[in-house]
Automatic annotation (TrEMBL):
Species per Swiss-Prot/TrEMBL record: Cephaloticoccus primus
Alphabetical keyword list: Iron, Metal-binding
UniProt GO molecular function: 2-oxoglutarate-dependent dioxygenase activity; iron ion binding
Identification of the protein by name: Phytanoyl-CoA dioxygenase
InterPro entries (alphabetical): Phytyl_CoA_dOase-like
Domain of life: Bacteria
Length: 199
């Protein structure tokens, strides 16, 4: 989904001045918006197996960055986000098939030896920033009554030269659509992820 392409409020949240301050600090330069997603995750819904966002976005050079905002309190019960600390410096790992009874997306990145996922317990309104090489994902929402909604935006550093065509046009932080070249290949894993849902 790209709600910022048809909804002014979504676009305004993508370009929120507070988010921009952190992105500039973490990326060391001016960001551009690449993607927005509203992830509902109602009670009983599957999660998204562990993955790396730049496998999908194919930002070059460098990688993308997520600003993942909890709209509900998120914990182990309702399928909170899991992240692998220090994986921001990992290379992209080619995914295996995920267990689709637990994950709506078909890809799963194996956890490298010596690394371990941890739960990022968050309160509604918290935002977690992480780059496109960080291994992350979530399990099913096992709560009977609690949604786990999140608002997820992806960005790239503004001097990028390429990105997957699904993320064009990009959006400058002052709200203009911009276009760069698209990456025609499947990135370091070859092939294509078409048919897979979402980053
Ligand atoms: O929220 C989740 O459980 C996973 C979403 C995600 O990983 C992503 O936006 O890349």
């Amino acid at each position: 989904m790209h709600p910022h392409r048809f909804n002014e409020k979504a676009r305004a949240y993508m370009l929120h001045p507070k988010t921009r301050v952190y992105l500039e600090r973490f990326m060391g330069g001016e960001p551009v918006g690449t993607q927005t997603m509203y992830y509902f995750k109602p009670p009983g819904a599957r999660g998204q197996a562990m993955h790396q966002d730049n496998f999908y976005l194919l930002v070059q050079p460098g990688t993308c960055m997520a600003a993942w905002t909890a709209l509900d309190d998120c914990d182990a019960e309702n399928g909170g986000l899991m992240v692998v600390p220090n994986s921001q410096n990992n290379d992209l790992v080619c995914p295996e098939r995920a267990d689709v009874s637990l994950s709506y997306a078909p890809h799963r990145v194996p956890i490298p030896e010596g690394q371990k996922p941890v739960l990022a317990e968050m309160k509604a309104g918290d935002t977690l920033f992480f780059n496109g090489n960080v291994i992350h994902g979530s399990g099913p929402n096992r709560s009977k009554t609690r949604f786990r909604r999140s608002w997820i935006c992806h960005y790239a550093k503004g001097d990028l030269s390429r990105i997957s065509k699904f993320f064009l046009p990009l959006v400058s932080m002052d709200g203009r659509d911009i276009v760069v070249e698209f990456e025609p290949g499947g990135g370091p894993c070859g092939g294509t992820w078409e048919g897979a849902e979402g980053a």
